[in-house]
What does this fold into?
Amino acid sequence: MTEETPEDGSSGLGERERAVLAVERRSWPGPGAKERAVREGLGLSPTRYYQLLNALLDDPRALAHDPVTVNRLRRVREEKQRRR
It folds into this structure.
């Protein structure tokens, strides 16, 4: 995982963090497609992927990089927490 300088437009996020947000930006055709893409494309187990994603939602660099996706996922997470 490489750290980029903010001047390159990455907001300081590494390649893996940007890739995780890119996966979340996509829509997926059916069950298992996203998990398969995570395993094959990112080389991560779904559990590790979601751990990284959850940490990214609290990272201000992720918000600066992709505010639409991060804010949408934060709303989803908050709704799930409210239901518990």
In short: The two ends are 34 Å apart (CA to CA). The helical segments are 15-25, 33-42, 46-57, 60-65, 67-83. The chain is about 65% helix and 0% strand.
